[in-house]
Design brief:
Helix 12 runs antiparallel to helix 13 and helix 12 (about 280-290) packs across helix 15. It is built from 17 helices and 18 strands. Helices cover about 35% and strands about 20% of the residues. The protein has helices spanning about 5-15, 30, 50-75, 90-100, 120-130, 150-160, 190-195, 240-245, 245-255, 265, 270, 280-290, 290-295, 305-310, 320-330, 350, 355-365, and strands at about 40-45, 80-85, 105-110, 115, 145-150, 165-175, 180-185, 205-210, 215, 230-235, 355, 385, 395-400, 405, 410-415, 425, 430-435, 440-445. It is α+β, with helices and mostly antiparallel strands and about 450 residues long.
Length: about 450
């Protein structure tokens, strides 16, 4: 690492396709291009049931620490902290051992309490540094860069010349064997269910991501660079039903049922940090068609964490989906969010954080809150479908044709140098079976196939 310049790190991260391993998948080379005082590894893994970050740390803590040091070098940061929940004892133990081997590294552990959403960037930065990111802002505005644990693992591998062609995915819920897997990007969801022993129920639904912010997918969906988990639940589970509600139904129910109690605002993590987000005003604005109320509610500041929807509202409404709808309407009308002002940390904030155990119980997921150990064996799908847009930025453009033989790690789709984005790499050896406007499909070659 000593010989790598900032420019070399940035270029390598872009070439190897490193993006945020969770959330929207922001390209890591852009964060490495920043100048920061502090870098933080986000090891909170606050979405219930997911285990990927914990399992990765148990087995590859040194690589994660290595990736953190690389980001320190790139950004010029003098401090680095790993924010991890105190309850993740095995992962924390592995980190302590890794840090003991590198006494010169200015890396600290910060133990978080077990609440949701501890992994939200705004919340995490405050918990670790005491700094509050401005409303609508990003961590670099307070001198901080935040990276997910798996992202840092991929940063370390990228500096060894290894592109991102695998993903850590937890498969849990109503399955025979909850498990965390390391799978090629593009692996079909149905393959992952088979590796978890299959569903234990006949009628089921699949949530990609966590139960709070995840979305419903079908068996034909594929793993992308941001897929963190697959949760299998009964098709009639309340959590599944809530994700199937049409926005028009949400709006009608809001207008007719909201009692304007204000609980959605009083438990909002961003509001408690002093942001001007007021979901209760947005709900009232819809009920009374009052644009001033909505403007005062600042829906564009919503992180869509979902606490207002599943924990706060006594009427079973969804301020989260209402905020998301309002943001879309404002965007379509050309609205530009103004810079927000901090209103001061709420004096009751520490008492209003929602414990994860209570959230899991409220979600009806206690029976599925089980270990999901990382499986050692490699997964070898017969076919992968590599989406050309898997992250923030422009979609990649294919550079291969049907029938062409490719090897794992080979670039199959590129992004122009002056465009935000990263290339897509083949995740298995095989032949290109299909190239479309949104994906490149590769089929593994069978023994005996000619070339």
């Amino acid at each position: 690492m000593i010989g790598w310049s900032r420019e070399e790190i940035v270029n390598r991260l872009r070439q190897c396709g490193v993006v945020g391993a969770g959330g929207a998948g922001f390209p890591a080379y852009m964060k490495a291009s920043s100048r920061a005082e502090w870098v933080i590894a986000n090891a909170a893994e606050c979405e219930p049931l997911l285990r990927g970050n914990q399992e990765l740390l148990r087995q590859a803590a040194r690589e994660v620490v290595g990736g953190l040091k690389i980001m320190m070098r790139a950004t010029g940061a003098a401090r680095a902290t790993i924010g991890i929940k105190a309850k993740y004892k095995a992962a924390a133990g592995a980190l302590r051992e890794a840090l003991a081997d590198e006494p010169e590294a200015a890396v600290e552990l910060h133990f978080l309490e077990d609440f949701y959403p501890a992994g939200d960037e705004h919340v995490l930065v405050y918990e670790v540094t005491g700094r509050v990111i401005p409303p609508g802002g990003i961590p670099i505005q307070v001198g901080v860069v935040v990276n997910n644990v798996e992202t840092l693992f991929n940063v370390h591998r990228a500096m060894e010349g290894r592109p991102v062609i695998e993903k850590i995915v937890t498969v849990t819920g109503a399955v025979q064997k909850p498990v965390t897997l390391r799978v090629p990007v593009g692996t079909p969801v149905r393959d992952l269910l088979d590796l978890a022993g299959g569903p234990v129920i006949k009628r089921f639904a699949i949530i990609e991501g966590g139960p709070m912010m995840g979305r419903l997918v079908d068996l034909d969906a594929v793993v992308t660079r941001t897929t963190g988990g697959l949760i299998i639940l009964p098709a009639d589970h309340p959590l599944v039903s809530s994700k199937q509600v049409d926005i028009d139904v949400d709006l009608r129910r809001t207008r007719g049922m909201c009692c304007h109690c204000g609980y959605c605002t009083e438990l909002c993590p961003r509001y408690l940090l002093g942001h001007g987000l007021r979901p209760d005003r947005n709900m009232a604005g819809l009920a009374y068609a009052t644009g001033e109320l909505v403007a005062g509610g600042a829906p564009w500041l919503c992180s869509e964490c979902g606490l207002c929807e599943v924990f706060a509202c006594p009427m079973g409404l969804s301020p989260r989906r209402v905020n998301a709808w309002l943001k879309r309407q404002m965007s379509r009308s050309g609205f530009k969010p103004p810079a927000g002002e901090l209103r001061g940390l709420h004096p009751q904030r520490s008492y209003r954080r929602v414990p994860t155990a209570r959230l899991v119980n409220r979600l009806g997921l206690s029976r599925y809150d089980l270990p999901a150990p990382l499986q050692e064996e490699s997964v070898r799908p017969q076919t992968v479908r590599l989406m050309l847009k898997q992250h923030i930025g422009a979609p990649a453009e294919p550079v291969v044709k049907p029938g062409e033989r490719v090897v794992a790690g080979q670039v199959v789709a590129e992004v122009p140098d002056n465009v935000l984005g990263v290339p897509v790499h083949a995740s298995i050896d095989g032949r290109v079976a299909q190239v479309s406007a949104d994906a490149v499909v590769i089929e593994a070659e069978r023994v005996g196939d000619g070339g």
